[in-house]
## 1
Amino acid sequence: MRLYFIALQFLTIIPLPFAVRCDERDLGRSMALFPLVGLSLGFLLVGVNYLLTPWLPRQLVDLLLIVVLSVVTGALHLDGLADVCDGLAARGSRERFLAVMKDSRTGAVGVVGLVLGLMLKYQALLSIPVEYKREALLFFPMVARFSQVQLAVGAKRARLEGLGSLFIGGAGLWQFVGAEMITLAVAWLLLGAKGIVACVVAYLLSWWLKAWFHRRLGGITGDVIGCVSELNEIVCLLALLVLFLGGNL
């Protein structure tokens, strides 16, 4: 449970009524439980959806669900999405890309990336058939947190400082296997074959992006992990939407 609370403290701004002991090695070890934190976020969204649905139209409820997810995670991964978009727009060397991502200011391209990302996530969630909405809310935050483990394990560090570097250095094969087993088991219980297919889509996207950033930056940073997590939330919802509306699984 201690590693779960370490992961919860890192991935959310949810306050804990007690102190949790954590050393540098625990940060990497806690990644095995990142999908459980994602599932916990999903339960939060399901609860908010249950409370608001009788009182508000679905369009507004789904927008508030995106707001709740952004707030409770401290917009940590949205910041990574914006920083990576700004880095891509810099069109310079590896050092230029890393310097732009490290800059605390958000540029015009970063703002555009944020707006487009949030709009895609909202529209995809809004289009999910209502009979599958609860399962989708539980599913997509979990898979996105698994993608963070996938990005970190076995990655090279593009820079030596930062929290992302600590997770990359501390996560290993057992963290990856543990996180993957949790993700696939819950995906099957929630959605059966559709859940496994959506996991595979997110898995392949994450591997491709991991390889691309290794070629472009020589490794992975915390911003890259956050960016890929946001992209996987969108891709998971889109994949489920395609499977729900047109799949024969």
Note: The chain has one domain: 29-240.
## 2
Amino acid sequence: MKMAGLFSVILFVVATVPSCGKTVAVANVEDSVILYQPTYDYEYVPDASYDLVADRVACIQSDIPLTYNERVKSFIDYFTVRDREYTRMVIRRKDIYFPIFEKYLKKHNLPQDLKYLAIVESGLKPEARSRVGAVGLWQFMPSTGRMFGLNRDWYIDERQDPEKSTEAACKYLKQLYRMFGDWELALAAYNTGPGNVRKAIRRSGYKKSFWDIYRYLPRETRSYVPQFVAIAYTLSYIDEHNLREEIPEYLVEADTLMVSQFASLKVLAEQLNVCEEDLQRLNPELRRAAVPETAKNYPLRIPADLADFIAANTSSLLDSAGSETIKKQFIAKAQKSSGSTYGRTKTTYRVRRGDVLGKIAERHGVRLSDVRRWNNIRGSRIYAGQRLTLYVKSSNRAVASAARTPVSAGKVHLVQPGDSLWEISRKYQGLTVAKIKQLNNLRTNSIKPGQKLIIGR
């Protein structure tokens, strides 16, 4: 018997065979087994019962426990039914980042399935930023990032570097596993911190499994491990849920150019006739799309197919990308941008009783909106004792210093009972009342005992 064509109608029998829940359709035609290939339907959403998914989960070989229950099933339904576009998006991106994850997981002798954690954390977006300030594929907070060698300044945030952040995540996960000796608890600690996991263990009566301490964990963490299991399942059964993506995303093959000067990626992209976005995707750690002026042999990733051209024209390319005109334009724009810390010095101000956020911003010569952004404050509510991070210009550093440091002889005057601006000005040569008011942003002559006044540079 001959087949009339790919779309011939044939009699077939659906049978579940010992394939870990994979259903195949077969037809007996003259004692031969023929696989039935239906027309592909992108929108088709296969149904998967609780028991079928349980069978499939049991067949996943993993060094990490993949506990299956109703909570996990609800997240599997989310990724395979309710938000299929999100799942397809991460499937498209996985071929960019999974090879990096697998390389470092192997280097640190860690389970390969930990690569799925980055999907839970960031959706495989190197630039991902949470509302509390966690950044990158592995969502490191600034303090945790510094603990594992991820540097951060105005220009560069290594939490967004796929290679460096992945190595840091491997080190952190290895440390957490040593603490708890259990991968589910280590994952929970990655999300909420080891202190909160220990607290949950104590409150549970010193039980030692994730599901035993489940109800004592923060709400977000109770969802975290089930999401990990759901993602591990979903990416193990892409075809069974009709989620196959035919056109994956990819990065252009890269080479490295060592740069020791300021260089604008926008201008460099124009010189190379490449898409600026592609150049930025190769260098996601460059927060401002520029190599800083202080760089020493910075390894800038460039398209590999242009490496020979760049090598032959490095000087002229960098001269254009780092010209004084381009640099000045960049700096001017940087200084005006909302929340910018460019050219500013970081300082900490401790809120005193009676302080108002707007007045604090005014005294330090910064915008109120910037103070809110730097400290994740939505309104203007502050409390005595709170520590505010401020970035002040060099001309305002003395004001910030006076607000947080002891009296420095010859520079700051500590107001005593009975002092007035006139009497203070008489104590220091060349000092006037107007100068004191200017140095301290005073609008009136009113001062009070204990106040620190700048009286010179």
Note: Confidence is low (pLDDT under 50) at residues 1-18, 23-34, 396-410.
## 3
Amino acid sequence: MFQGFSQQTGDFLWSLALNNDRTWFKANKQTFEDVLNQPFRALAADTLARMQALYPSQDFQSHVSRIYRDARRLFGRGPFKDHLWFTIHSGDRHAVGPMFWFEVDRVSWSYGMGIWDDSTDVPAAFRAAVDADPARFEALVRDIAGYGPYKLWGPEYKRPKGDRGELLNPWYNRKHFSVGYEHGYGGPLFDETLPDVLVRDFQRLMPMYHFLKEVYNAVLIERAGRPGKG
């Protein structure tokens, strides 16, 4: 059961960033387990259990990142990440369709929902869905804004794909996006209420999740029907 992180979590990640080598990590492995890995996995498990209970038909699963970087993709960096994340998704964890996520790093914690597939057909299908019913998508964005300040992450096109107005353009003109919230250390991060906070806001993002799921499922069906597929 998740009991909360502590300031030691951030302190450990800062130290890891400054001492990113296997010797240091081996000497501090127990601290990693106590202040980061064990509470992180408990948070992922508790959050998933709540989401499964609320949405049994969604077949939600979770994937927890490892602290170790892929040795094939170090690109001059140390062998360890200075952050951890988990996702809650429906179906294969290797898919890049819409999913919920949580991340903690040295100075902040963030969470939200997004889609990371920037294959040409996915953002094109997203824009087509918005074009087909802009009022629906505008209502989704306004509902999210109504819950308070949110952040929108994701790479923007150098040349905008269209003009859907001030409210929708930041969403419409990204290769892919994630929407959610970011906080500094403290508050629910340090106590057992964090799973409830995450699930509350995941519920608020669920209508946007369903919209993106419709888009992504339609793309998968279209892909399967192409010559040479299926």
Note: The two ends are 43 Å apart (CA to CA).
## 4
Amino acid sequence: MYNICVFAGTTEGRAVVEFLSGQPVQVTACVATEYGELMLPEKENITVSVKRLDENEMACLFQEQAYDLVIDATHPYAYEVTENIKGACDRTETPYVRLLRSGSAASNDAVFLKDIPAVVDFLNQENGVVLLTTGSKELAKYKDIRDFEERVYARVLPTESSLQSCRDAGVKLSHIIAMQGPFTEEMNVATLKSIGASFMVTKDSGDAGGFDEKVKAAKEAGARMLVIGRQIKEEGLSLSEVLKLLSERFSFAYQPEVVVAGIGPGNMAAMTQEVLDAIKEADCLIGAKRMLENKKAPHQGCFAAIAPDMIRQIIDEHPEYRSFTVLMSGDTGFYSGTKKLLDALKGCQVKVLPGLSSLAYLAARLNISYEDAYVTSLHGRDHDIIPDVKSHKKVFVLVGGENGIGRLCRTLCDGGLKDVAVHVGEQLSYDEEKLTSGTAEELKDRTFASLSAAFIINDHPDQIVTQGLPDSAFKRGESEGNVVPMTKSEVRSVSLSKLRLTADAVCWDVGAGTGSVAIEMALQAKDGTVYAIERKEDACALIEENSRNLRAANVVTVAGTAPWCCEELPAPTHAFIGGSSGNMKEIISLLIKKNPDVRIVATAITLESVSELTACMKAFKFKDSEVVSMTVASSRKAGPYHLMMGQNPVYIYTFQYPEVTA
């Protein structure tokens, strides 16, 4: 087993120890304080040493333990400790790596001073309260600041050694702020304002050391930053590079940490704090180019990608990054690419964070609820929205593409819905946000942003949910000199009930005629597809016309003779056979070959068809079979009277689960 020593006095050092805690390696984690020990993971392969070591003590430790590698992750200003570690490694010929903390960009009015005496000299020329945030170890060096007792406050760790250093330096008890970080911008602002600080003294401890939070807080509180600059320019590796080195040198398994974050409508003000933290803390950001704008920090990697395979490729090709945050528009569970991405991220440590959906955001902007809304999307997908709007009082829709809202409104007008109300939200959450309301007719010629969302309100929806369109709803026409055959309403209703359709059914209607059964199938199976199979060309044209008129966009017309024209069709879950042209056995054989569990309903009027279906029922030995004889009579007015006119008797066969596939 490998043996590694980590001087882990920083956030980055603790991250290295955390990484090594899951690897086949023995780790010695060296820290100088009990507080540092508390921050380390408690694992069997981790031994913690809480002691300040000089160079000789380090050399003895390295010689005794024969480390395969020593990682120096001490604070950037712990110059003496770093020199001691380097010296001990040289003396014992132990491999050494310096882990560097990245610096941060200070505000323009910050004053950089080379050391503490320079800070004292500067403050002696100025008036105002001073907040020291450089720790307790060197507090005594600030004692020469003019009016030290009254002007100087010290923020230190809440440990006995830190408090003793404050007392030794002469810091008043009421001026000691004993707190444990990390400190947020808000906490820093509150501290500065509570003491009326004019100056904040700090070191450039990098992002992980909370330097950015100090910069922002000083600006907010009106305090000037005095930054003690680094005295030497170090050479070493970043945290990501150290992890990559460990993985390559010792063949450690590296499981990337990936956060999939929903960023809501897009403006950072509309993001959750959890998502903001994930963006800030990531080593690398991945997302669409527009999502990455103004979100990347100087220390972060950044790649524009949206395809799941490309995102996974980026992660695999960059093990130097320890953690990734993938930005997803809107909410990760609402018409998001997250579902496909999760399949591509197998083998990674994945955490999914929700975002504010455009559905919730727009509803709030319009002061309406959305629990009763039908939700759909036209962004990047083909979908006929007319049936949705006709059958629901409230529809929410995501819209994409150039002036997609205009196209949507024109579609509504073409579908007889020109008077429905359309409430459009553009550039939601941004300064350019715009809300527009009007009827579909009023908005159809206006121009809208490519990414928009809308609520469509139909005060008079058609809420019928069962089959039962009247025969008059279908255009008949002639084929080869005869009226195109059509399954009548009552037979159609019974046949459809026998089919037991599901919302996502894949249906075949063999011998579709006018398409009456196919269209009613399609209106029931809104999320599925219906293949209307018809050998006569003029009947095929009629099917397409009726499908357009009745807004059954999920009907696909297949011209040809069954079963031979059906070989390439998807396997059906349900099939209706209204006409077979004498090929009944061959049609049923193909259906069963495509899907042994297919549910089949067939109708017969002629005795020959009855004989053919009965023979098939016997030949295939269906476990679930039924025959219904149906005779329908409907009223017809004759002068002042109504007569019941009988239709031809119809036999309805239902088949499922064959024992043989003859």
Note: Residues 79-92 form the longest helix (14 residues).
